[in-house]
Specification:
The chain is mostly helical. The chain is built from 14 helices and two strands.
Length: 347
């Protein structure tokens, strides 16, 4: 009799242990879930209804920022896509007008760069590294900050934004082409208009400033095509990461800081930004640089624009879409959230 009782106890022991383990797991998951909801402002994820299509994206909406000062990268990508949808719905005249504003504001930053760091020949001779840092820190970070804070339409950032929207399936190709064209034309007109205003205002009247403006334009317009292209790639990789950082930040100070380091880096390293060059080269030509329009376009503006587009579309939009939004990754993320949810109580 005792032996039979002992055998029955052994038989039921594994089941009891499993029940207790399951209960403990439910308690842990419930506590983790409560902590998660307190730490964030809510995330709603609906798992995909079918696994038949690898690229099928579940309905997933990341809510607002967590308790800190920045959104997590996955939520930033969703913010970029939402911005693309807004740009796609924007009136064309508004896009063109805001494009003009962006070109002029970037030109303001480029003018500041050339007239401060560029017009420091003694520093450039004695400490070129420090001079390059000065040119990077003073000028274009201010220009991009003004673009972001005013909502202007900058072509180089729009390439990243609109490409992300297309890859996510929220924006069509026609909307992308319209935004790119209008913002690019607006940027060009705004940049050239500012070049004339700066020339008429005699901003480069000082000999050192005039020499810097002419030297910058001459150097840029005589680069080999391939060099301009790759400098454009490296430049807009950093510029788009700066724009990405502004979308991640939930404060104005955070946005300014997100802009400062990438933009300072690209200028200090001598990379090429197509919109800034739409101001720098015409301004140098007006001040006396021996550069033709054909040289400006074929040696700089065209290859730099192509490089800027490649970096924004591939290294920023494409890379982050593949990492955070592309089918299998989103499905896996949804599965992890579902698995982390507390199990329903056993009946």
């Amino acid at each position: 009799m005792a032996a039979a009782t002992f055998s029955a106890t052994l038989a039921t022991a594994p089941r009891d242990v499993a029940v207790r383990a399951s209960s403990a797991r439910a308690v842990v998951l419930a506590r983790a879930s409560r902590r998660h909801h307190r730490a964030s402002r809510g995330v709603v994820v609906v798992a995909p209804s079918s696994r038949s299509t690898a690229s099928a994206r579940p309905t997933a909406v990341a809510a607002a920022a967590p308790a800190g000062d920045a959104l997590p990268p996955t939520a930033v990508f969703d913010t970029v896509v939402a911005a693309a949808e807004k740009k796609a719905a924007q009136d064309p005249a508004t896009t063109l007008l805001l494009g003009f504003s962006a070109g002029a504001l970037i030109g303001m930053g480029a003018l500041l760069m050339s007239c401060v760091g560029g017009a420091s020949p003694a520093l450039a001779a004695s400490n070129p590294g420090l001079c390059n840092f000065l040119k990077g820190a003073v000028g274009l970070p201010a220009g991009l900050t003004l673009v972001i804070l005013t909502g202007a339409e900058l072509f180089t950032g729009n390439v990243m934004t609109m490409t992300s929207g297309v890859l996510a399936g929220k924006v069509d190709a026609a909307s992308l082409a319209r935004n790119w064209t209008l913002s690019y034309v607006g940027n060009f007109v705004g940049s050239v208009a500012l070049a004339f205003l700066a020339f008429w205002a005699c901003t480069a009247a000082a000999p050192a400033a005039k020499a810097a403006v002419i030297g910058i334009a001459t150097m840029k317009a005589t680069l080999p095509f391939a060099v301009s292209f790759f400098k454009g790639v490296l430049c807009n990789w950093l510029v788009c990461l700066a724009v990405w950082g502004t979308m991640a930040s939930t404060s104005t100070a955070g946005k300014i800081l997100a802009i400062f380091w990438p933009i300072t880096a690209f200028v200090a390293l001598g990379f090429e930004h197509s919109i800034a060059n739409m101001f720098l080269i015409p301004h140098g030509m007006l001040c006396g640089a021996d550069v033709t329009i054909a040289q400006m376009m074929m040696n700089n503006i065209v290859p730099v624009t192509l490089g800027n587009v490649f970096a924004a579309a591939v290294f920023v939009a494409g890379l982050h879409w593949r990492a955070y939004s592309y089918g299998g990754n989103v499905a896996a993320a949804a599965a992890r959230v579902v698995a982390a949810a507390p199990e329903p109580a056993a009946r």
